[in-house]
Design a protein that fits this description.
single chain; alpha/beta; Rossmann fold; Alpha-Beta Plaits; 6-stranded mixed beta sheet; 4-stranded antiparallel beta sheet; 10 helices; 14 strands; elongated
């Protein structure tokens, strides 16, 4: 699919010498959901700000829908919806007016029917005549999302959209993002909730210390880097591993009650059959056997540790 956002060797440095982005290059495909993961201070928000034209890069180039964000700022920005981390709303304005005003800022003709549909999608319609000061924190965040969608953007940035909100809003967000993707909207999501990325993203990007560590299809990434483990519970605790099992990638638990065997599911042979035979030959009885696949969180933590 064609790239709707293209970032080429972008750097962002500040007067004190701090380099927030270090030659970042990234192509985001039209209609995809990209989850951008990284610890605090990794450069996620700075990268989003430069793409949206809020922050000026020190060097490099960025285009959205073929428009350069510096030379053709208005054309590029018209394609973008942004939901920032911070909740910053006019407290005494009505919800309907707040969202309607955002649409007007982009030069769009008044369309109350569309605004009402957006409010319904976000379970805000019943609150349309409330002042924003009267809303809960979760409802205020929904208003931010409504504002970002009011001008019908083709690219939507969600910067930690569910931070500090309830589980219900997170679930609603996932459903909304999927509907937007079906409508052809490209969604870029930054989050600390890795289960969100695992649940809804097509591709995963990992950033740390201002550098992109990888951008890869989620399923392929988990297949390539995910490790599978088999936990073997013993009928009787062992004090140490028998010498005959030393060739296997086995770890004995501290209490001696179980063994953990790590293996690669893509290998021609996993070694499980021979392991079970050798366990029996060594006189170790099996009470139970369980397998588990490493999660996206495990992969993310490992990547960040390697780059730090």
């Amino acid at each position: 699919m064609p790239s709707i956002v293209s970032v080429k060797n972008v750097r962002k440095s500040y007067d004190d010498g701090f380099e927030a982005l270090k030659g970042v290059s990234l192509d985001i495909e039209e209609g995809e959901i990209l989850a951008l993961l990284g610890p605090n201070g990794a450069g996620k928000t700075t990268l989003i700000s430069t793409i949206c034209g809020i922050t000026t890069p020190t060097s490099g180039s960025i285009s959205v829908g073929g428009f350069d964000v510096s030379a053709d700022y208005r054309a590029a920005r018209n394609l973008i919806g942004l939901v920032p981390q911070e909740i910053n709303l006019e407290p005494f304005e009505f919800v309907m007016n707040t969202v309607r005003f955002s649409r007007g800022l982009f030069g769009k003709a008044r369309n109350d029917a569309l605004i009402e549909d957006v409010l319904r999608d976000l379970s805000l319609y019943e609150k349309r005549n409330n002042r924003t000061v009267e809303l809960s924190g979760g409802m205020k965040r929904r208003v931010l999302i409504a504002k970002a969608l009011s001008h019908e953007p083709r690219v939507l940035f969600l910067d930690e959209p569910t931070a500090g909100v309830d589980v219900e809003l997170r679930k609603d967000m996932w459903e909304l993002v999927e509907r937007l993707r079906q409508d052809g909207v490209t969604v870029i999501l930054t989050t600390h909730y890795i289960e969100e990325a695992e649940a809804i993203a097509d591709r995963i990007g990992v950033i740390n210390n201002g550098e992109i560590l990888l951008v890869e299809d989620k399923t392929a990434l988990m297949a390539r880097m995910g490790q599978k483990e088999m936990r073997i519970e013993l009928t009787e605790a062992a004090t140490k591993l028998p010498e005959s099992l030393s060739d296997y990638n086995l770890v004995l638990s501290d209490d001696g009650a179980s063994l953990v065997y790590s293996y690669d599911t893509k290998a021609q042979r996993t070694g499980i059959t021979s392991l079970l035979k050798d366990l029996q030959a060594a006189g170790l009885g099996l009470r139970d056997v369980q397998t588990s696949q490493s999660s996206l969180e495990d992969i993310f933590v490992g990547l960040v540790k390697e780059s730090s």
